[in-house]
UniProtKB/TrEMBL annotation:
<feature type="transmembrane region" description="Helical">
    <location>
        <begin position="102"/>
        <end position="123"/>
    </location>
</feature>
<feature type="transmembrane region" description="Helical">
    <location>
        <begin position="243"/>
        <end position="264"/>
    </location>
</feature>
<feature type="transmembrane region" description="Helical">
    <location>
        <begin position="167"/>
        <end position="190"/>
    </location>
</feature>
<feature type="transmembrane region" description="Helical">
    <location>
        <begin position="143"/>
        <end position="161"/>
    </location>
</feature>
<feature type="transmembrane region" description="Helical">
    <location>
        <begin position="77"/>
        <end position="96"/>
    </location>
</feature>
<feature type="transmembrane region" description="Helical">
    <location>
        <begin position="48"/>
        <end position="70"/>
    </location>
</feature>
<keyword id="KW-0812">Transmembrane</keyword>
<feature type="transmembrane region" description="Helical">
    <location>
        <begin position="366"/>
        <end position="389"/>
    </location>
</feature>
<dbReference type="Pfam" id="PF07690">
    <property type="entry name" value="MFS_1"/>
</dbReference>
<dbReference type="InterPro" id="IPR036259">
    <property type="entry name" value="MFS_trans_sf"/>
</dbReference>
<dbReference type="InterPro" id="IPR050171">
    <property type="entry name" value="MFS_Transporters"/>
</dbReference>
<keyword id="KW-1133">Transmembrane helix</keyword>
<keyword id="KW-0472">Membrane</keyword>
<feature type="region of interest" description="Disordered">
    <location>
        <begin position="398"/>
        <end position="445"/>
    </location>
</feature>
<feature type="transmembrane region" description="Helical">
    <location>
        <begin position="276"/>
        <end position="296"/>
    </location>
</feature>
<protein>
    <submittedName>
        <fullName>MFS transporter</fullName>
    </submittedName>
</protein>
<dbReference type="InterPro" id="IPR011701">
    <property type="entry name" value="MFS"/>
</dbReference>
Length: 445
């Protein structure tokens, strides 16, 4: 493994270890889940699609309150509990044999995953300085891709065996990987919960933050690129071009390895809102160019010419993806109130389940039915969304500057000698300023 993908020692590296542990299990799960649910559980493709659509819709709604829970009860303890809930959900897939239990387990899985993403972002915000967060997230993204690639290789072995036992072993491994993730997260320093919300303040303030909601909506549009590589481009290659079929896996490997090796370097210049806006705008320009090149691959030409166009388009898409990711990370943190990082990250993160739910239908309809004009329309939509992000972020920045400062609660001043507050979900004392890392003491250490 290239050591440049590793973050600095300390909390960032442990966060990376947690990311790597569960991404290996997820990589194997993603490769094998469809066949397991059809051949072992006995579900139809329509039932699987319906169940996962409902599950991710529920998860996207649950992310905000679970993020708020991380703010109030402490992000480390909340992250640990949600990692354990994910492990339980994956393990439950091993015993279900009908649709309704599958739907319940899928809803638990998606809810825990969305909440875990928000809680981990809040934990990272409490452990990493603001100017370093985008860089650390870039390292985590690199580790994520490395884990997914390794997990997909393991899943490939299960596919080659094509037996119920092999598929169950993959699900068991995924469940164990989240147990490992929970154990690693528990070894991180605790981050103190935030003060109580002010009188009259809504419980989920992010739902009333219209400028932030606009930024989130634009980011969701930009995330429509997510199903491109996994679904739309493979179908495009097979049905609309003369390129060889093996190019599907080659482009996937290109993207996975590219992000693993270059995401950190690409994110390094992004340190504030100005550079984040520039990163998102440049990603839109490059993504639009990528769409044009992908469209050209369908023109009558030799197989090598179509293949070359697809490779060039994939390289452009890779660069656009890394720039957009870096910019969106910085934007999502910089515009969120420090005392509400969890719920704001939970809201911003709804773009991922939305893209997973709506993206496949939209992209396959647009690209496979419309062909070249569909690619040009998609590129135009992504270009406009990336341009609109600039004024939307500036508006949200002005709104953030006008927010009243949270009033500290009288009992929170430890220096005044008041009694300590209740522990967080992982047993960490409160009463510490929000965002402060509190090392924990364990027996035997």
């Amino acid at each position: 493994m290239n050591l440049r993908i590793l973050p600095p020692p300390g909390a960032p590296r442990r966060l990376a270890a947690a990311q790597l542990s569960n991404s290996v299990g997820d990589g194997a799960y993603y490769v094998c889940s469809a066949l397991y649910f059809t051949r072992v559980v006995g579900l139809s493709p329509a039932q699987i699609g319906l169940g996962l659509t409902v599950a991710w819709a529920v998860g996207s709604v649950a992310g905000v309150p679970l993020g708020a829970l991380a703010d109030r009860r402490g992000p480390r303890g909340t992250s640990v509990l949600l990692a354990l809930a994910t492990a339980a959900a994956v393990a439950s897939f091993l015993v279900i044999r009908s649709f309704w239990p599958f739907l319940l387990a899928a809803c638990l899985y998606a809810t825990a995953q969305c909440g875990l993403a928000a809680a981990r972002q809040a934990l990272l915000a409490g452990l990493v300085e603001p100017r370093e967060r985008t860089g650390v997230l870039a390292h985590l993204q690199s580790m994520l891709n490395a884990g997914l690639a390794l997990g997909a290789s393991i899943g490939g072995l299960a596919l080659s065996a094509d037996s119920a036992g092999a598929y169950r072993a993959v699900f068991a491994m995924d469940a164990v990987s989240f147990l490992v993730c929970a154990a690693v997260l528990l070894r991180l320093p605790a981050v103190a919960p935030v003060e109580r919300r002010a009188a009259g303040e809504p419980r989920l303030a992010v739902l009333r933050d219209r400028p932030y909601a606009l930024v989130t909506a634009l980011n969701a549009v930009l995330l429509l690129r997510m199903p491109l590589l996994s679904l739309a481009i493979p179908l495009w290659i097979v049905e609309r071009t003369h390129a060889p079929g093996w190019l599907v896996s080659a482009l996937f490997v290109l993207n996975t390895v590219g992000v693993m090796l270059f995401q950190v370097r690409t994110a390094r210049p992004v340190t504030d809102l100005r550079t984040a806006r520039a990163a998102v705008w440049s990603s839109g320009l490059v993504m639009a160019a990528s769409c044009v090149v992908f469209a050209l691959s369908a023109l009558p030409a030799a197989a090598w010419a179509a293949g070359a166009a697809l490779v060039v388009g994939a390289v452009l898409q890779l660069f656009a993806e890394m720039r957009q990711s870096a910019g969106s990370w910085q934007i999502s943190f910089s515009l969120a109130p420090p005392e509400k990082i969890g719920q704001y990250q939970g809201f911003f993160g709804t773009g991922v389940p939305v893209a997973r739910t709506l993206g496949p239908l939209l992209l396959t309809s647009l690209l496979l039915l419309w062909g070249i004009p569909g690619w040009l329309l998609l590129g135009g939509v992504l270009l406009v969304a990336s341009w609109a992000m600039g004024p939307a972020v500036r508006r949200a920045e002005r709104a953030a500057a006008q927010r009243p400062e949270p009033e500290p609660e009288p009992a929170a001043a430890a220096a005044a000698g008041e009694p300590a507050a209740a522990p967080d979900a992982a047993g960490t004392p409160e009463g510490t300023p929000a965002g402060t890392a509190v090392p924990t003491v364990r027996a035997g250490r």
